[in-house]
Structures are given as structure tokens and as C-alpha cells.
User: Fold these one by one.
Assistant:
Number 1:
Amino acid sequence: MTHKSAPEDLALHGARVLGFATASRIACRYGLDAGATGESLLDFEARGWTRDLSFAGTSGWSLTDAGKIENERRLAAELDTAAHATFVPLNRRFGTACTNWQVRPTRADPMALNDHADWRWDDRVLRTLASIDGSFRQLCDQLAGCLERFGGYADRYSSALGKVEAGQLAWVDAPDRDSCHILWIQFHEDLLATLGIPRGSDM
């Protein structure tokens, strides 16, 4: 999922990236409304984050030291938001797959345990788990660029998935090993703790 930056965040970031740029140039760079961009920059100036400088007949916006700190704070928060937004749909797909691995509804019992006799049903689950692997690795790589501890999750998930594909089906959700399900639970808890999001509020 692609994250779209807020216009005011782009206005602040543009003053830093473009350096000594007019509001209209910053707006053009990011496809923003020029008037709204100018208002944001004036608001930032009042907060001590930007300054409008003139030199040799030209003028442009730049960031103060406080503005650079605020810009970096916003970028970090944006990365957190983007990472979580990427995880939420993956988490829904994974949760559905795990439920379907454990439960196989029947006409008599919508919560009947999956006896794994229907190979088509199980095959759909396993294909879903496999399809998540690449996206999960991309997310982990993104997070590991900031926090090294996130680097091991993707390898362990892929390893568990490989065992599943080799016929060791306990590696889907067994609680006594780094199964796909256990790894996912651990990653989810790590992400929620890191972002300060209460469990259950991001479903």
C-alpha cells in the first residue's frame, strides 16, 4: 500500500530538500496548491521552523535548525504510519488464512475443526501464506533499515514456510517452534510495541 504524505508535511520537507525555494516551486514539485503551501510555510515561520530569506533580488524558504528537527520527527512518524498501513492488510489476509487452517465450516457446524481431509481447502490456505512472503519481507526490510531487530522475522517466516511446503505442516501454526503463526504473532507484538499502538485497535 502506497502512503500519501500530508500536504503540510510536503511543504516543510520541500523547503529542506529544494533549499531556498519559493512556495510555488515547492508546490509544483509535489503537486500541491500554491496558496495552501504558502500558508503552511507562513505558519511554520511563526513556529520558528522556516524562514523566508532574500538574496540578490531573489527570495526563498529554508528550514531553521528547529525546522529540521521537526521535519525529521514528521518523517519518522510518517514511516511508522506507512509501515503500519502496509502491515494491516497483510495481517488481515494472514489472520483469515490461519483461521481457515484451523476451522473448516460444515453445514452442521460453522466452527468445525479442520481435519485437513479437504486438500483443496488446505491448498488455498498454503497458497495465501506463500503469497504473503514477499510483501512481508519488503516490510521487514523497510523496518530493519531503521531498527535492526526487525531483520530476522522475514528469514524465519520463509524458513517455516519452506518446511510447510516440504510437507511438515505443523510449521503452519505449531506453538512449540518458530512456525509461521508464532513468527507472525511475535512480529505483530513487536510492531505494536514499537509504534505504541494497543493490541486489537489496528484490526
Number 2:
Amino acid sequence: MDLDDLPVGRVLSRREVLAVLGASGAMLFLGCSDSTAATDDGGSTSSCVVRPELTEGPYYVDENLNRSDIRSDPSTGVVREGALLALTLNVSRAASGACSPLADAIVDVWHCDAGGLYSDVEANGTVGQEFLRGYQVTDANGVARFTTIYPGWYRGRAVHIHFKVRSAASASSAYEFTSQLFFDDELTDRVHAEEPYASKGQRDMLNSEDGIYNQGGSQLVLAVTETSDGYAATFDIALEDV
């Protein structure tokens, strides 16, 4: 079976979250919630909740591809077919219970194509190809944007996207966080009912059956909206003490 490595990390309890946010020297991955808390001056500040780190898996390759549109293989220009997905990652720094934009973070994204294949993987017969891989450096607002496709599926895994947030070599302090993003099963059924996904057949695993998803993946499900030309999703990420 094509299984990713065993998951790592865990979900912290609320008591543990509060204890960690008051400690120093720890780097955590958090997600900024949509809720805000009022401040004394009438403004608002984002609250942050811990989300789990998940396995990198066997298919990460550092191709050093600085690009926003990751659909094509750079050597041929051939674009991988599939439903368009505009993915935005908002990366923040968490301190004193609030989030502020984290600029100059390197965000890597990689995932399989509509047929379930990863690029540059010998077992997939794709060595030398670099489709559906790339990184972006967050801007002053902590934003990294990618144009990709809705992922397909492969045996033994729910549908997912891998991502990594890491510091630049010139950063004053080094950090790296790796996890995965998931999709609502009903939405995946609708997308995969169309070509080029349909020809592969019905996927063999729902989110609830995926051992990696069950390590906290419910906190990593993308809120996907339909657009005029495909789908779009935004996900908030925060790192503590960076």
C-alpha cells in the first residue's frame, strides 16, 4: 500500500495551550481562528488555537521551485489537468495570545495529481518531473498564494495536500513545521465524479478512515468555496516564538 509515514505531533488540551503560550523557547504551529476579541481601545485581536503537526510523508522533494502556479512541469510546460484550486496560506507569528503577520517565511506545497501520482518519485515513474510542487515566500502580510488543482487520491490515504513552513537561511532563528491539509468528503465526491478524476474510480478511503487524519486532521480541513473557474480556499497558520 502507498502509505505515508506514521503521524507525529498531537492536539493539546486548552489547559496545555494556555501553559505553552505563557512559556518561552517553544515553537508551535497554531491556526488563527476567525473569531476576534475586543480590545480596550475598541479594536480587535485574533485568537490562536493549536493545530497538530502531521507527517512529512515519503514524497517531499526540495526542488527549489519558487513559483505560485505549481500545476506544470517546468521542463515541458505541460499543465496537470484537474479542477483549479486557488490556495492562500496566511502565516502569522503568535505572541501573548495574539497573531501578527510573519513575513519572509518559506511555504512549500506538494501533492498528487488527479491520477494519484506525485512528481519526481521513482515508484510513480515520474523521476525528473516537477509538477504540483513549489514554494512561495510570504509577503509583508504573511500571505503565500498558490494556483494548483484539486488533488486526486491514491491507495491508503484520504485526499490531502502537504505543506511545510520554514525559515529562510538568513533568518535570525530557524524553524520548520510540516503538516497536511484535508478536504470535506462530500466535496471530494463531487469533484472526483468529473474527469480527469472519474476515470480512476472511487477512492478507497474517507477522512474518518485515514490514520493520519485521525491524529487531528479535523482541525486541518480546508473551507473551500466555488469560484467562476474552480475552487478557492484560505487557511490561517501561526507559529509561536519565531
